[in-house]
């Protein structure tokens, strides 16, 4: 079926006889797939009772019309085109500024399938609750039907979905973050399976009632039904709460699909590293928030001759190939990044990406019509309008931008995006990195001895809540594989799925696994490693390990660089700093092993035996060291 058959052109009569696409109109329903979609749309419309239903075609004209309408309604502020062409600022309600993890549910039939790291709710009861809150929730509003693809449309690793939403802001954001439009309907028409996602801000309008700039509801739900592959989100218009293609589909639901189909949906950046000889290596890396993920995704190496091309900054889908390697794609089409801390000195690539065509949310507005946030420049402007629309000066004593303020921008605008970043088959991985934010204990870099040891490292990733200046292990915030908020099923079973994936790879072609820690502190409390562009020095060692160009030093916790094998030329890292960066305190690591055992125990015996064996082996090596 051709696109023209799905969205037929209608003839307009008048002085000029033109042919124009039907704007927002329902597509032709000449296939079982599209009839099934239309029946679902009708069902949700009957429940939510919108005034209008608009089928999104993904065109530039449609997007421009939506943006103009939101500006006219006071929901977006158009930024000065001289400084930030094609860009807009949204200000959310102060109660709607972040992910609502306490209101996020996995409604598996068996509560054990959700596991201890997820909020579980009984599916039938939650469906009744959802039907209750969604009843009439879109009155006075337009319901948009947004067909979207994660990954290039029709690609071998791609999956598709449809979001129904009463938020034009969400439609514009989904248009940046995914591939939207008629090409996805063509996939549905040919019978491709698709994921159902439903979203309402939960703010129906009575006849004649004036809308607000940011409609939302105090009551919030983000609900996942893994067996039927559905997402229902209510009450929030913010970020991933409303862009259901992102964390809800691309991680929580996709992780379930991946378990069934034999692949992995991961909270990982994806980069291509090119050495001075022109050799290219592909690396995926999983870091919890505030651990340098975006900076690594857009790394500018300080070592002469090295280059990094960005493939993705947040999510990667990994699938074993017929060649025995692990292949990866970035299923997203845009970046949804945290603005504060993103600046010329920390991530110049991100700043350059935001030159235009960007939707900013909850950042500050400058008098000249541009935007600002903490960290964008070293010196704040003399006056601003803050994220809540209030006058602000450096003496105000509060942040001008919300700490979780965001930018949404097309990945194609990134100046160091790989030229083939969206090729459907993806790239073969050479290495996988896991990292947390640890002031103590964890060295700068550790190489896993094999796949099972690498999965063990991923399962123990954590960050310290407190600065443990005494060198003891602080209270740890566990975030294995950086997936605690995003795994759609029991995490112990997820560990087992990782082990199974290793069996699907050729042992000599599987990516090597490493743990990194940019945040270790010395006894004097300062960071021992410069970080940022100098992290390329660790990548350099990893590449030389992959190529077999340098040996490694064996330790009880894994393989470490030998003295002199890290390229430190031009840095201020002293030999004493290096010793501290790789120091292994036997007693602290034995306590770390005890904490890992306590964490594993929360899974009621479901942690795979192979990982329990890795923990026992770690203890044995430490006790003998």
Short description:
This protein is α+β, with helices and mostly antiparallel strands. The chain is 28% helix and 22% strand.
Explain what this protein looks like in three dimensions:
With 625 residues, the protein is α+β, with helices and mostly antiparallel strands. It is built from 17 helices and 34 strands. The strands form nine sheets. Strands 3, 6, 7, 8, 9, 10, 11, 12 and 13 form a nine-stranded mixed sheet that branches. The termini are far apart.
CATH class of the largest domain: Alpha Beta
Number of helices: 17
Percent helix, as a range, is: 25-40%
What's the CATH architecture of the largest domain?
A: Alpha-Beta Complex
Model regions low in confidence, pLDDT < 50 over at least 5 residues = 1-5, 7-21, 466-471
Which structural class do you get from the secondary structure elements?
A: alpha+beta
- Describe the largest sheet: 9 strands, mixed
Strand segment count: 34
Q: Outline, from the CA principal axes?
A: globular
How far apart the termini lie comes to 67 Å
**CATH topology (level 3) name of the largest domain:** Phosphoenolpyruvate Carboxykinase, domain 3
Number of domains: 3
* Quaternary structure classification: single chain
Mean pLDDT: 94
Provide the gyration radius in Å.
25 Å
Q: Which strand-content bin applies to the residues?
A: 15-25%
Features of the shown structure:
625 residues, alpha+beta, Phosphoenolpyruvate Carboxykinase, domain 1, Phosphoenolpyruvate Carboxykinase, domain 3, Phosphoenolpyruvate Carboxykinase, domain 2, 3 domains, nine-stranded mixed sheet, six-stranded mixed sheet, 17 helices, 22% strand, kinase, gluconeogenesis
């Amino acid at each position: 079926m051709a696109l023209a058959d799905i969205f037929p052109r209608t003839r307009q009569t008048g002085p000029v006889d033109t042919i124009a696409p039907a704007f927002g109109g329902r597509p032709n329903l000449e296939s079982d797939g599209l009839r099934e979609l239309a029946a679902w749309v009708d069902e949700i419309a009957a429940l939510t009772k919108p005034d209008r239903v608009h089928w999104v075609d993904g065109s530039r004209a449609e997007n421009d019309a939506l943006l103009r309408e939101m500006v006219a309604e006071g929901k977006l502020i158009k930024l000065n085109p001289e400084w930030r062409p094609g860009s807009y600022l949204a200000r959310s309600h102060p109660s709607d500024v972040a992910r609502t993890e306490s209101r996020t549910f996995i409604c598996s039939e068996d509560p054990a399938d959700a596991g201890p790291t997820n909020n579980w709710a009984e599916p039938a009861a939650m469906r009744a609750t959802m039907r209750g809150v969604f009843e009439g929730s879109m009155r006075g509003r337009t319901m948009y039907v947004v067909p979207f693809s994660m990954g290039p449309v029709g690609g071998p690793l791609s999956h598709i979905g449809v979001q129904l939403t009463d938020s034009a802001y969400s439609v514009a954001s989904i248009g940046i973050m995914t591939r939207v439009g008629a090409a996805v309907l063509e996939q549905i028409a040919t019978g491709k399976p698709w994921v159902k996602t439903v979203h309402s801000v939960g703010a129906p309008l009575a006849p004649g009632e004036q809308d607000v700039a940011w409609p939302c509801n105090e009551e919030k739900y983000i609900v996942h039904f893994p067996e039927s592959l559905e997402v229902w989100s209510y009450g929030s218009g913010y970020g991933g709460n409303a862009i259901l293609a992102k964390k809800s589909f691309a991680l929580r639901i996709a992780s379930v699909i991946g378990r069934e189909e034999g692949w992995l949906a991961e909270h990982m950046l994806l980069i291509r590293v090119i050495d001075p000889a022109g050799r290219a290596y592909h690396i995926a890396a999983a870091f919890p928030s505030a651990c340098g993920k975006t900076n690594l995704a857009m790394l500018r190496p300080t070592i002469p001759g090295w280059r990094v091309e960005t493939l993705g900054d947040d999510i990667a889908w990994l699938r074993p190939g017929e060649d025995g390697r692990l292949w990866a794609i970035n299923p997203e089409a845009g970046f949804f990044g945290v603005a504060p801390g993103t600046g010329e000195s920390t991530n110049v690539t991100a700043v350059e990406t935001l030159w235009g065509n960007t939707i900013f949310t909850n950042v500050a507005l400058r008098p000249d019509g541009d935007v600002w946030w903490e960290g964008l420049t070293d010196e704040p402007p003399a006056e601003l309008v803050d994220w809540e629309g209030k006058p602000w000066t450096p003496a105000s004593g509060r942040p001008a931008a919300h700490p979780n303020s965001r930018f949404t921008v097309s990945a194609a605008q990134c100046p160091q995006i790989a030229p083939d970043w969206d090729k459907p088959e993806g790239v073969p991985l050479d290495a996988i990195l896991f990292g947390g934010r640890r002031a103590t204990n964890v060295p700068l870099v550790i190489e896993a001895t094999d796949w099972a040891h690498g999965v063990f490292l991923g399962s123990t990733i954590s960050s310290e809540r407190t600065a443990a200046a005494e060198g003891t292990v602080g209270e740890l915030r566990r975030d294995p594989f950086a997936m605690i908020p995003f795994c759609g099923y029991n995490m112990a079973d997820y560990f087992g799925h990782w082990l199974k994936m290793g069996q699907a790879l050729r042992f000599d072609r599987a990516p090597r696994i490493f743990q990194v820690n940019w945040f270790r502190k010395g006894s004097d409390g300062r960071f021992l490693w410069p970080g940022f562009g100098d992290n390329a020095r660790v990548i350099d060692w990893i590449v030389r390990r992959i190529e077999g160009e340098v040996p490694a030093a064996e330790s009880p916790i894994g393989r470490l660089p030998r003295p002199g094998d890290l390229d430190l030329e031009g840095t201020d890292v002293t030999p004493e700093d290096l010793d501290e960066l790789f120091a292994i305190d036997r007693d602290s690591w034995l306590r770390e092993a005890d904490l890992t055992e306590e964490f594993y125990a929360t899974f009621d015996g479901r942690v795979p035996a192979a990982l329990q064996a890795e923990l026992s082996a770690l203890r044995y090596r430490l006790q003998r060291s």
